[in-house]
Design brief:
- There is one protein chain.
- The chain has 535 residues and is α/β, with parallel strands linked by helices.
- It folds into 3 domains: 3-234, TIM Barrel (Alpha-Beta Barrel), CATH 3.20.20; 238-262, no CATH class; 292-530, Spore Coat Polysaccharide Biosynthesis Protein SpsA, Chain A (Alpha-Beta Complex).
- The longest helix has 20 residues, at 236-255.
- The model has no long low-confidence stretch (mean pLDDT 93).
- It binds sulfopyruvate and magnesium ion.
- Magnesium ion (MG) binds at residues 42-44, 81.
Length: 535
Amino acid sequence: MKRTTKLRQMLMGNDTAVLMEAHNGLSAKLVKEAGFEGIWGSGLSISAALGVRDNNEASWTQVLDVLEFMSDATDLPILLDGDTGYGNFNNVIRLVKKLEQRGIAGVCLEDKLFPKTNSFISGEKQALAEVDEFCGKLRAAKDTQADEDFMVVARTEAFIAGWGLNEALLRATAYAESGADVILVHSARKDSSEILSFMQHWSGAAPVIIVPTKYPTEPMSKFVEAGITNFIFANQCIRTVVTALQDTLKKLRETHDLMSVENDIAPVSEIFRLQGMKEFASLEARYLPEPTQAPYRALVLAATKGNFGKLVEDKPKCMLNLKGKPVLTWHTEAFNKQGIKNIGVVRGYKKDAVNLAGLSYFDNDDYGTTGELYSLYQARDFLKGEVVIAYGDVIYDPFILQNLLAQSQGVTLAADAGFRIRPRVDDKRDLVKTEGTRTPLGGECTLQAIGAIEPDAASGEWIGLLALQGDAAAKVVAALEAMAQDEPEALRSASLVDLLNRLIAAGEKVNVVHTFGHWRDLDEQADLLASDQVS
Ligand code: SPV
Ligand code: MG
């Protein structure tokens, strides 16, 4: 059912109807959850929530923005407290159009002058609008509404302004004749006398709605007996918010202890629920593309001391300060750039000095007598899903890692096709012999052999980066476990190069991604040591 129709049926029917105040999207939602069937978009409450007076200090479009949130937050019909219509008939015409566009079910217009003042503040001094002028506004509203069920409520402030019963009746009658669907009779008395006297003489030309803020002790049944079935609870939500906030803030200010309020306030999960995060999760599952890149983890092999002389007396080479940051940080930054947060490090030599926060550590306490594969074995539980393994002593531009991850399938290593022009003081390098080439159009480049290959037969030098995708990590772990079982000595002495050759020998495909330059191996220490860039 349309909201306008719902509101119409509520206010025109014989059943008791209560419009409950709300002043923003959240309170509108809570009003709905509590089981109310309609909302009073209170001018007092909306302005108070905005931190301004109920004197039309918030512009009508600002009020409209709040209403839009309220309308989106709930499917309840909303009757806007439209004050005087924010101007003359012309403003009312535009207001009604805008309210209908936002799904607001009706507007209440009061017979005062713009800018209005709240009825409970010196009501007697408040001037009323000329009856004819106000009737023109009502006619303008009714003529403008596109939806025949949109409700126009005419509110007379005759009692508030001290004009008494006759004026109230005269005005209410004129307003009903001008097309108002419902008459709101407002009273600031602490009892029901004005309202009941009005009802004694009211013709019944239109249903009546009241705002019993000032006479809360009067039972509703009294009004129902008098013929009033429509009620506005006009400000209890905003008043509750104020009391609750004052209480919490006082406690927090006094104690500076979050536990002084923690168990009395809504948990954050309740806020998420009210915000509709459950629906968001299902939307996300429906509309967000699957992550293109699996969440890699990264493992740095950094157990060895390195031949950096005095520089590594109290720390391993992975903690050497290189151009202002530890070598290990060069790795973690490169990983982070690729979205990899789960980073493990195998330590050995001076392990206590390897202490960057947020990393997972594995220890190879036999680092002095064992090799890389034994280090890798210590971290076998970390080798799950997609993993990139890096030698702790290589430094590379992050795009090399990006390239490797983007192209890797199964076991893939990064190789430098520019190895022939790379200056290098020793000739200990792991060259790769490959078959095939990979281009943007496809093709594969697979590893035939790695290690001490004749440079003329090599297509590149391994950079010390290895990616494991799909079931590759599981295969590597299986190979490590098999070695631990069957060849424990070989496991202790073997290198990663040995592992790669074993995988090839076992018929596993190892892929190679070539790049050109842009990395260095820290063991080429001569020039680095001579520079002042390492400490
Ligand atoms: C409001 O809620 O803003 C009203 C009702 O107009 S009253 O505050 O009683 O005037
Ligand atoms: Mg108001």
